[in-house]
Amino acid sequence: MLQFLLMVESSATNQSGDSQRGVADYRRVTVVMLFAFACYMATAGLAFRVVLWQLDYGTFAQPTQVSEFHRSMFFHSIVAIVVGTCALFVRRRRHCGLRWPRAVAVISVLLFTVSLDLIVGAVFPPPSHLESVLAPHPRRGWSHRTGMVGSNSGVIVNINSVGFRGPEVPRKKASDEIRVLFLGDSVTFGFSLTWEDTFIARTAKKLRDRRPDLNITLMNGGVGGYTTWQSLDLFKDEGVRVEPDFVVLNYCMNDMVDLIYLEEASIVGNPIRFSFPNSSHWSGIVRAIQSTYVQQRDKATRDQLVWATRDPFGGPDPQLRSEADLFREPPPESVAAAWRLSIRHLEALNALCEEKGLSWILMYCPLAEQLGSDAVYRQPEKLLRRWSLERGMPYLDLTRAFEAEMTSSGCSPDALLMDSIHPTARGSDIIADEVIRMMMKMRVLPKAKSEVE
User: Is residue 362 situated within a structural domain?
Assistant: First the structure.
């Protein structure tokens, strides 16, 4: 456009003395440029309108992408009207100097840059809350995306800058602050529960109500699907950084089951089909560059992982053919080997906590099949309890608390567990009470002034 403008300017200048001809050329060039740019803007605005019509018929699009389509449609439509009006205005003018085509050229370049940014931004919209909060991790297989609001286990969750679910954790720890870090899998994370219904949020609320004088921060380091070795790896990286004073590891049966037929630190399961959320930058072009980089980086991380896909009941051990075999005493050799491997992970976590001078407890959340007077699957509680007692460390078995609630209220396990293992909001209340009881017993919390007096 600028080259065309210079050619016309040179042509007009060479018309020796014919200033009237030069004025006409300037006006003609300005009008042509304005009409051409108005047609481009109108076409782009119409194209976005057509896309929005298609979305009305059920075509999938992210909510943020729809808003970007609306922004682009209104911008191009309004600019087309304004530029078209300016073209008619210039066309009716009798005098038009060189400053008009120059101004039109500069403004057109600026508006085209904005147009390109909006178009690219519609293809790479800001992150949507429908996207997964999980990202590939080079060692653990997957982890939380930091600073992300997205979907997980059917609810919208907030991931803070550390990678934990829940409120932000200040970088600098206050001198009077007590920090408690919870580690584990989807039970700790709060599968299908809003933040307020997770047992960590319930514990925090009960503590505030009971001890408003305390400055205590509870942090949710749970990640769905994690076994103990993955929680240990998370603790070494993100966990140590937040300077916890007390650690709670929630142990679930998948911590052992996922290790059957596997070598240490193997990643179990089918490769996760991660979504790659776009950048949140205000500029569409910058979002495209950043999002493309993140997609390529995450894809490379995901592709280098070795996923061990196997059926624990379809392996070479003839003694392991059903879920009941997981709880037999003595256990089948494949189950015993998985327990030995899992115990080694607990040993490593215990050694790390001793090195850091931290107190911690092992907490066990039972399966629905392990609750009730006729339950026979007691092996996990006994094994973990024995391991804890041998090391002189506290062990919190939630089985007894769940059974006590069932006895006192006459409810079934379904009232406390939404499936075989994940607690309901009512189950979260029970866990919160038991965690606070254990913290008081271990004197993690300082005595209240009234108790001292």
Answer: yes
